[in-house]
């Protein structure tokens, strides 16, 4: 590298940006083409993309057969939001050009970002037909399918890339970890564990440790989950999504104090994390601290009335406690925010029934029964509401359905006989 350019780069790296950039600017006019290419890359790294593109276009004019210059210029266009120009330029790169592989990967990313997933997939598959043993393309397809949620396809291409033995040295994430992510997302937790452990031997990344901890939780391997998530939070205390998972692991092995401390620490670091408040509510309720549990549930729902998990947790709690006033208050609060779920109608019906508002309870039960899976408890509650509202024609079919689910319910059989004979 040119000595003057090396000196300028040192100035920039030492914090003397303006002085270093002035030196770079001065040498451009007399620089050879190789130095100009290096300066263009430097500008790109520093975020001076327009200057990088200006140099790239100058070099492209002199070297129209150098595909790597076209690929570099297209990256500049992408950074500048000129995607159509980037597409045109990438499509100019010929199959025999060494930059063809890079061009296909960039094209696939561009098409995918534009929502043209089928085009992106076609580009990658066509390139793989030309270079079937190219591990970079196999990894590109694996990433594409993983992002699309096609976990089986993703796993297949990650495995091919790993078996090739020709992986690039500068991959941002170990392919074993990415394969583990695909397996875990697809519910193949045992396979995921194996590859997480292999991938984390090289570098214990935060995302990798979180994935290992989450997967271990699914397999009820709580020791591994605690070890992985504790190490993650030691390395990166601001990885706040790990606090809830670590607390769950502690709760599963009945280490209540550790779970509570973990959640408190997480909330201190992220006071708007709904999951942490919800887990704290569950912890307090499971320990009999119902007052604190209620307050944490209320905080979650006040923060986000759309949090269905928190709302359902509160509704089940109020039902168990037979606190129908609180239940109705919560449902009316949700009404104010236009939050609707058939499950809420089931509880609305139950609360209104208990508060002796029978007609309104029957209307709510109508809404619940149109969507919800009919379990025994729902059928029995609905029949009681309809019978009290003098709607025998609606109650009888529900009691018959209930008897089919549980033929040993002699009380239901007798009630049906009585209704049919009345």
Automatic annotation (TrEMBL):
Identify the stretches annotated as TPR repeats.
206-239, 274-307, 376-409
Q: Where does the signal peptide begin and end?
A: none
Is Transmembrane helix among this UniProt entry's keywords? no
Which keywords does this Swiss-Prot/TrEMBL entry list?
A: Repeat, TPR repeat
Q: Where are the transmembrane segments?
A: none
Instruction: Report whether Repeat shows up as a keyword of the record.
Output: yes
Q: According to the lineage, what is the superkingdom?
A: Bacteria
Q: What is this protein called?
A: Uncharacterized protein
